[in-house]
Design a protein that fits this description.
The complex is a heterotrimer of chains A (238), B (549) and C (166).
Chain A lengths: L7 E6 L2 E6 L4 H7 L23 E4 L6 E2 L10 E3 L3 H17 L14 H8 L16 E2 L5 E4 L8 H10 L4 E4 L6 E4 L16 H5 L5 E3 L12 H11 L1
Parallel strand pairs in A: 1-5
Antiparallel strand pairs in A: 1-2, 3-4, 3-5, 6-7, 7-10, 8-9
Chain B lengths: L2 H17 L3 E5 L2 H5 L2 H13 L9 E4 L11 E4 L4 E2 L7 H6 L16 H4 L17 H6 L4 H9 L2 H11 L11 H10 L6 E6 L8 H8 L1 H15 L3 E6 L4 H16 L15 E6 L9 H8 L23 E5 H13 L1 H5 L9 E8 L5 E6 L4 H8 L9 E6 L5 E4 L9 H6 L8 E6 L4 H15 L5 H18 L5 H17 L3 H5 L2 H9 L1 H9 L19
Helix pairs in contact in B: 7-11, 7-14, 8-9, 8-11, 10-12, 11-14, 18-19, 18-22, 19-20
Chain C lengths: L15 H11 L7 H12 L4 H10 L4 H10 L11 E6 L2 H5 L2 H12 L12 E6 L11 E3 L2 E3 L4 H11 L3
Parallel strand pairs in C: 1-2
Antiparallel strand pairs in C: 1-3, 3-4
Helix pairs in contact in C: 1-2, 2-3, 3-4, 6-7
Classes of the chains: A alpha+beta (238), B alpha/beta (549), C alpha+beta (166).
């Protein structure tokens, strides 16, 4: 299917000419062209929320920074994805995350397979300037196969979205607000007692850190997420 | 009901008033009720019933008369005397003086600058009419604007008048109201909604509360006109659950308006239909943000979402939605009645009309005022507000709540409008003005607002969720005298980052109180850090010094 | 027990559930009515507990986790039963700069509890409010919903003493 001419927009990303379909986001267009923009809450196949702010980009003529994951391409747009300012903000965002809970990689099951770790390395994060908050959060191992360790959670809500949008169970959601937010299962019950959880494990697969992991694996193997775009494609084709 | 029938109710009401001009009005807004005006009203009723004026001098509850600090307030007609600090024991004396000379001991001069300098547009009926009787509102030209809009104007003409008036959103950001209306009107859709944001969340602000308690019909009329102008047939009022009196009066107002056919189908005997429902907020400041407010009306967590799409394109239940706050809607009926040009003649070049402010803090006349845009802060605080009490020295005035800033003395002669307040590092906000004297510590004030933003953050985006918590910790550290200069640099870095990267207005403006106090009161920060001393003597500096640097 | 589809039954025979059901009916059992319904539950019972959340969630076909997420997002909702009496200290800006922190310290000290807590005998709860909109009478506190204007520590102690069993 060839889109009509008017449905194609041409724009510049980091000085490179890019063409994209009108309904594509800046992130889609950039990645198609092999340009990388860091993301954390975004995952192909899940609805976007624009919450992590790592994919913020500069757009000429706009004073505000905009999230590439939800901002649609426009004709003649001039996008900058890598500037000193953006890199500084991204580093600070990551530092805030590292300082918010407990992300000591050396003792984490996700060490080596963690999106946060990869982002930290990519941004040359050698230390965190902010004081570590280390809240004492619980760990729930009541489920037969899975564990949730809230100390590792970055509140990206991928688990909430995959459970709602893809599995259709909506076992997960977020409780409280602000710095006290926490992901929960059902009425904040132990995961193992959840009536709605289908134990499908999708939440574990999409979790970017060691917050959700499978029992009995001292070291986590790489998570598999290819099923998401596939499921999305199959549903569209239906 | 036809326009003629409405007019008849109004003229009957006016005629009844003319036949018996004697009347005692007791302020029954929340402020005076807290000062016991309920008992005063009952005492006045008893005094009237037991004397020669029996059945000849109605005692009515009216809305806010403004000067809350001197409540309970009572006014008499036809003499127009205003009494202050009235107690139930004063009732006999006041009733006895209705037709004679005033009770001097209790009299509050109407010549006070507090009253003389005010211009009533939004508050024109406030303190004059009984907010629980629609007949009172009709007799005060109520619903004349709606009838005029429905019978003489096309929707586009209504929007044209609102645009000409130059009215800007009174909720805080100051977006041009006419432009907002026309965007919603032009959106292609079957269904559109009108929402009145009555989730007045700024601490130190009670303008919307007062308008809803004093003149609720005016807000309904503004919303119905908006519904006609943008092509909506349903409206919602999102009101704080913390305002039970406002909720009760709104419910009464909606019921009475329905009864007279001013809500429902065939309004004013035309084809236009419009309904209004109340939705209660539940204590979340972030729900003042438009997309969060919509999420809340839809029954969910009040978390904002990225814009675009703007609510004017895709809002409540995905339909184009017009959101204005209480004061904005309350301005609409007089604008339609008198024309947009009339309104635009008041105020400054870029901020037209009047603005309602809540004057509180270290100021003599606390209460509610309405003044033309462009009046200087000095006039507002020292003339209208009567200055700082107890001979203390003015230090700063806080405007715009947690999204605003503290304005120091050197800006007192600045005309108050959207642009000048922004230039001074604050914002107009919804209209709270909290005056601070030299007994307030500006670092402590900054910490207070950061605590507010931290616990009101929805937690969705990282900069606001984790950034406000880090900033709060740093401010606490400074207040406790445990901070070093590096901490100040980190605080400034965080301010810049949170301001530029947060998802919604709450996070983007959370650093403002810190930035404005750093700009004008940096020496106070430095005193805490370098000398471990709080100049105002508020913070317990140095108490925990051994724990830190 | 797996969540029952269709008609959910109220947690008890208590007549107040009829009021809750009426709210849901008035909104056509729409999912959007979650907050309105939780308001009715809290108004009728004083707080929200797990059985009531479960009943409302199932009646409105809202996921349990969402209902819990909403109930804990809004500070107006309480998941703990309130004391027989409630003292709410307003911490709005005007009250704050006019001495609300001292009032809060006073009440916390004299009752031996922190804000958000209830005395062990269930007699008094201490809460704080963001702003009750009575700024011109600052500092204020609400004693069982009645606004006490221009409050000071002495009057505060007097008000609390009135609640104490004689």
């Amino acid at each position: 299917m060839t889109p009509a001419v008017s449905d194609v927009k041409t724009l510049q990303i980091d000085g490179i000419d890019v063409s994209a379909q009108a309904d594509q986001t800046i992130l889609d267009a950039a990645r198609e062209k092999g340009l990388s923009i860091p993301t954390l809450c975004h995952l192909d196949g899940l609805g976007d929320v624009g919450a992590c702010r790592l994919c913020l980009v500069e757009i000429k003529g706009t004073s505000k920074l905009l999230p590439a994951c939800v901002t649609r391409v426009e004709e003649g747009m001039e996008v900058t994805t890598q500037s000193e300012r953006l890199l500084k903000y991204r580093r600070m965002t990551l530092e805030l995350l590292f300082a918010e809970r407990n992300h000591v990689c050396s003792v984490c099951v996700a060490n080596g397979h963690c999106d946060l770790q990869v982002l930290g390395q990519a941004h040359g994060l050698t230390h965190v300037q902010f004081p570590y908050r280390y809240p004492k959060l619980p760990m729930d191992a009541s489920h037969d196969r899975f564990v949730v360790d809230h100390n590792r959670c970055v509140l990206c809500t991928r688990c909430v979205r995959v459970c709602d949008e893809v599995e259709g169970a909506h076992t997960w959601d977020v409780m409280s607000r602000g710095i006290g937010s926490m992901v929960i299962t059902d009425l904040h019950q132990p995961w193992g007692e959840s009536d709605t959880c289908t134990s499908c494990g999708k939440c574990v697969q999409v979790c970017p850190t060691g917050a959700l992991f499978e029992k009995g694996k001292a070291r986590l193997v790489a998570k598999s997420r290819d099923f998401l775009p596939y499921l999305a494609m199959m549903r569209e084709g239906k | 009901m036809t326009p003629e029938q409405l007019e008849q109710i109004a003229s009957e009401e006016t005629a009844a008033r003319a036949r018996n001009p004697r009347r005692l009005s007791v302020c029954m807004a929340a402020g005076c009720i807290s000062s016991n005006s309920d008992a005063v009203k009952k005492a006045l009723e008893r005094a009237v019933a037991g004397g020669p004026l029996k059945d000849a001098c109605p005692v009515t509850g009216v809305g806010c008369m403004g000067l809350c600090s001197r409540g309970p307030l009572v006014s008499t007609e036809p003499a127009g005397v205003l009494y202050q600090n009235v107690t139930p024991e004063d009732a006999g004396e006041i009733v006895g003086a209705v037709s004679g000379p005033a009770v001097e001991r209790l009299q509050c001069s109407r010549e006070l600058p507090f009253f003389k300098r005010q211009v009533g547009v939004v508050l024109e009926n406030s303190g004059q009419i009984n907010p629980e009787r629609i007949e009172d509102y009709l007799a005060a030209k109520g619903y004349a604007a709606l009838v005029q809009a429905l019978t003489e104007m096309r929707p586009a003409e209504v929007i044209e008048q609102v645009s000409r008036s130059g009215l800007r959103g009174r909720g805080g950001a100051g977006y041009p109201t006419g432009l907002k209306w026309s965007t919603v009107a032009k959106a292609r859709a079957e269904t559109r909604y009108v929402i009145c944001n009555a989730d007045e969340g700024d601490p130190g602000a009670f303008m919307d509360r007062s308008v809803l308690e004093s003149d609720p019909q005016r807000v309904l009329e503004g919303m119905i006109i908006a519904g006609y102008a943008v092509g909506a047939s349903r409206g919602y009022i999102y009101v704080r659950a913390e305002y039970p009196l406002a909720i009760a009066r709104l419910n009464t107002a909606i019921r009475q308006a329905k009864h007279l056919g001013l809500l429902g189908s065939q309004i004013g005997n035309t084809e236009f239909a419009f309904d209004i429902e109340l939705r209660l907020g539940a204590g979340a400041f972030v729900c003042g943000e438009e997309t969060a407010l919509i999420a809340s009306i839809e029954g969910g967590r009040g978390t904002p979402r990225p814009r675009p799409p703007y609510p004017a394109q895709a809002g409540l239940f995905g339909a184009p939605t017009l959101i204005n706050n209480v004061e904005t809607f309350a301005n609409i009926p007089p604008i339609i009645r008198n024309g947009g040009d009339w309104y635009a003649a008041m105020g400054t070049q870029r901020s037209k009309g009047t603005k309602v402010f809540a004057l509180t803090g270290k100021i003599n006349c606390t209460g509610l005022i309405e003044v033309p845009m462009g009046m200087s802060l000095r006039e507002i605080i020292f003339e209208v507000g009567g200055g700082v009490p107890e001979g203390r020295k003015f230090k700063a005035v806080q405007t715009g709540g947690p999204s605003g800033g503290c304005i120091p003395e050197q800006f007192l002669d600045m005309p108050v409008d959207y642009d000048s307040l922004a230039q001074a590092g604050s914002i107009m906000g919804s209209g709270g003005m909290i005056v601070m004297d030299d007994s307030s510590c500006m670092v402590d004030v900054a910490k207070y607002f950061m605590e507010f933003c931290m616990s009101e953050s929805c937690g969705k985006c990282i900069p606001c969720r984790a950034g406000t918590a880090q900033m709060y910790d740093l401010l606490a550290k400074i207040c406790e005298g445990r901070a070093a200069l590096d901490d100040l640099a980190m605080l400034e870095d965080l301010c810049d980052m949170v301001k530029n990267t947060s998802l919604c207005g709450l996070g983007q403006s959370a650093p403002n109180p810190v930035l404005s106090t750093l700009r004008y009161f940096r020496d106070e920060y430095l005193a805490h850090i370098q000398e471990k001393k709080c100049p105002a003597g508020v913070c317990a500096c140095g108490m925990k010094q051994e724990a830190g640097s | 027990m797996p969540p029952t589809l269709g008609k959910a039954s109220p947690p008890s025979e208590d007549k107040r559930w009829k009021i809750v059901a009426a709210t849901m009916r008035r909104h056509g059992f729409s999912r959007n009515a979650l907050i309105e319904t939780l308001h009715t539950v809290q108004q009728s019972f004083g707080f929200l507990d797990r059985p009531s959340l479960e009943y409302v969630a199932q009646s409105l076909r809202v996921p349990l986790s969402k209902a819990f997420g909403v109930a804990t997002f809004y500070h107006f909702f309480s998941l703990k039963p309130p004391g027989d009496h409630t003292c709410v200290i307003c911490l709005g800006t005007a009250c704050y700069i006019k001495g609300a922190p001292q009032l809060l310290a006073e009440v916390e000290q004299s009752l031996g509890i922190k804000q958000g807590e209830t005395t062990a005998d269930g007699h008094v709860s201490v809460l704080t409010a963001r702003c009750v909109g009575s700024c011109s009478l600052a500092p204020v506190a609400l004693f069982d919903s009645e606004v006490a204007p221009r409050l000071n520590a002495v009057e505060m102690r007097g008000r609390l003493a009135r609640w104490m069993p004689s």
